[in-house]
Amino acid sequence: MSNMSYTNHKLKVAARFIYKIMNYKITIGTVIAVVIIAIIAAALVFRGGAGTGAGSAVQQGIQTPQGTAVAPGASPVASSGQVIAPSGQPAKLDVTPSSPQAPQESDPVSANGIPSSAIKLTVTASGWSPSSFTVKSGAVVTLSITSGDSQTHIFMMDDPSLSALAVGVGPGETRVITFNAPKSGTYGFHCDVPGHAARGEVGKMIVE
Ligand SMILES: [Cu+2]
Questions:
Q1: Which structural domain, as residue segments, surrounds residue 80?
Q2: Separation of 205 CA from ligand 1 center, angstroms?
Q3: Does some domain include residue 175?
Q4: Strand partners, 146
Q5: 110 Cα: distance to centroid of ligand 1 (angstroms)
Q6: Which residue, of 6, 92, 107, 204, has the fewest CB within 10 Å?
Q7: What is the Å distance from ligand 1's center to 193 Cα?
Q8: Angle (nearest 5°) at CA 178 between 52 and 153
Q9: 28-85: per-residue pLDDT in tens?
Q10: Mean per-residue pLDDT, 126-140
Q11: How many domains is the chain partitioned into structurally?
Q12: How far is the CA of 196 from the centre of ligand 1 (A)?
């Protein structure tokens, strides 16, 4: 073996070795890339479930054994159109808010997580907007309550027969509540934070 061919041979071995290493690196790189893509995909799916997907979940509704809820934490509506309380029974409106017999307020929802079916009420120190809304007796009603300023507000119906319909929101927060509208009549509501109703945070629900 001449010196030249020996060097050639060494180069070939080295080239083969580098090729193998590169191949190996490509393989590792590919695996890492696949893992990273999988993690990103999983994160997107997870975020979708909690955030943007809540929007699509709202469109489709959140399926529960009792029925479909418009937002996480809100009471589901059975196929019969009856809002179901955590007790498993039809939600009652003359009970303590958030009690097992009451329709439940949702977890905070993002602006684009507000169900399209909701009647959207915003409250600030200037009052409720809108300050009145109309629904049909027995109909499934979803109210979204938004604090439009840097204060905490509490939506509450005036009439004790609707005591369960209370929703508290922190500054800038939105929550929803779904219930079956009571018998026809005009029902006042107010903000239950001391002093807020007196400064004009009042409105009315008209049930036809
Ligand atoms: Cu208030």
A1: 52-207
A2: 17
A3: yes
A4: 122, 174
A5: 20
A6: 6
A7: 5
A8: 80
A9: 666 556 555 565 565 544 544 443 434 444 456 898 888 999 999 999 999 999 999 9
A10: 97
A11: 1
A12: 5
The pTM assigned to this predicted structure is: 0.71
Q: Are strands 202-207 and 132-135 parallel, antiparallel or unpaired?
A: parallel
Residue 67 falls inside a structural domain: yes
- Of the candidates 186, 193, 129, the residue with the CA atom closest to the CA atom of residue 156: 193
CA distance 183 to 208: 8
For residue 44, being part of any structural domain is answered with: no
Which of the 8 DSSP states describes residue 181? -
Type of residue found at 148 = G
β-strand pairing of 166-169 with 153-157? antiparallel
CATH value at residue 56 = 2.60.40.420
Q: How far is the CA of 138 from the centre of ligand 1 (A)?
A: 28
Cα-to-centroid distance, 145 and ligand 1 (Å): 11
Q: In the block, which residue shows the tokens 């009571």?
A: 182
Q: Which residues place a Cβ less than 5 A from the ion ligand 1?
A: 153, 191, 193, 196, 201
Nearest to 160 by CA among 111, 94, 207: 94
In a domain, 12, yes or no: no
Assigned token pair, 170: 């922190």
Tokens of 93: 């409106």
